[in-house]
């Protein structure tokens, strides 16, 4: 990557060359720090799960939570999973990190159950992790070690998993046999169509937040959202909208038949202590 950048700018003169190399070094330096940091992060207990409520839009009752990984790098501070997850994927570190996430989520559901809170957790799973040979074993163990009925765990995969359709079919089938629900995250941003999904034993479609953000100002986006909801319902998928920030968006979704959602309107992802407070209330507001 660095090499390519140098090559490109060399053509446009010496000064630019200097500027770009320095810029690129900074990017590279950060990437190396993240890469190195990720190797030690598990041992150093630097990860934490945050939780964002999934809400029944009309009643504002919490029907589940999504676990979202947080990492505080000792030198760089908080780093977004949008930045470190791809690095963890490219180095293979996503396998042990993803394992920690599932185990931690299962422990947490167990703890909540013992205190009388019965709630399901949705966990994000990277395509690499999903295809790992030990994945099903890990899921089974995490459930049994915590004496958890499988209905409390939901797994979120992205459309990229669908690229290996035959392999995915088999793994999703095994998860279904265990009794675990599978969601397609960020739906609409990849290449899979609803017709492909209809052949997979998927339970939930999560409408990507980019659609939700645009749908009130863009009639085409509004049509796309309506179509996803209509076809999704006809194919018996549960629908969850992501990224709801305004009452207007929530109303549009309800009117068009999507009844569950997440977003800053209800709550940002919060620590386990903060989510416990929300879970002990009747609804998010
Ligand atoms: P995602 O699974 O699609 O999660 C939704 C993201 O949207 C989260 O970002 C969440 O904080 C953010 N979000 C929620 N409500 C709103 C809203 O109303 N407005 C806006 N603008 N954003 C909202 P986050 O926590 O930074 O995570 C980013 C992505 O990183 C996740 O997207 C997921 O793909 C990945 N990720 C997070 N945790 C894990 C993990 O444990 N394992 C794996 N493999 N990936 C993870
Ligand atoms: Mg997700
Ligand atoms: Mg995602
Ligand atoms: Mg998403």
UniProtKB/TrEMBL annotation:
<protein>
    <submittedName>
        <fullName>EAL domain-containing protein</fullName>
    </submittedName>
</protein>
<feature type="domain" description="EAL">
    <location>
        <begin position="31"/>
        <end position="283"/>
    </location>
</feature>
């Amino acid at each position: 990557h660095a090499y390519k950048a140098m090559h490109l700018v060399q053509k446009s003169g010496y000064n630019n060359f200097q500027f770009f190399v320095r810029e690129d070094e900074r990017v590279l330096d950060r990437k190396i720090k993240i890469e190195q940091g990720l190797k030690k992060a598990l041992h150093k207990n630097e990860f934490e799960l945050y939780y964002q409520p999934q809400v029944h839009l009309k009643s504002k009752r919490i029907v589940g939570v999504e676990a979202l990984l947080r990492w505080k790098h000792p030198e760089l501070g908080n780093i977004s999973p949008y930045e470190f997850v791809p690095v963890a994927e490219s180095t293979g570190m996503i396998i042990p990190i993803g394992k920690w996430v599932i185990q931690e989520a299962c422990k947490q559901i167990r703890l909540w159950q013992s205190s009388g809170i019965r709630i399901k957790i949705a966990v994000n799973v990277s395509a690499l992790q999903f295809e790992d040979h030990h994945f099903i074993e890990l899921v089974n163990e995490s459930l049994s070690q915590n004496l958890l009925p499988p209905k409390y765990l939901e797994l979120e995969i992205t459309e990229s998993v669908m690229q290996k359709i035959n392999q995915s079919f088999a793994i999703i089938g095994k998860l279904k046999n265990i009794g675990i629900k599978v969601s397609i995250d960020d739906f609409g941003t990849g290449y899979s169509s609803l017709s492909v999904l209809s052949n997979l034993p998927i339970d939930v479609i999560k409408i990507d937040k980019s659609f939700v953000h645009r749908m009130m100002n863009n009639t085409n986006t509004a049509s796309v959202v309506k179509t996803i909801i209509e076809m999704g319902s006809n194919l018996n998928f549960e629908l969850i909208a992501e990224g709801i920030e305004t009452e207007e968006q929530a109303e549009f979704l309800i009117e068009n038949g999507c009844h569950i959602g997440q977003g800053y309107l209800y709550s940002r992802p919060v620590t386990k202590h903060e989510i416990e407070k929300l879970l002990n209330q009747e609804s998010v507001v």
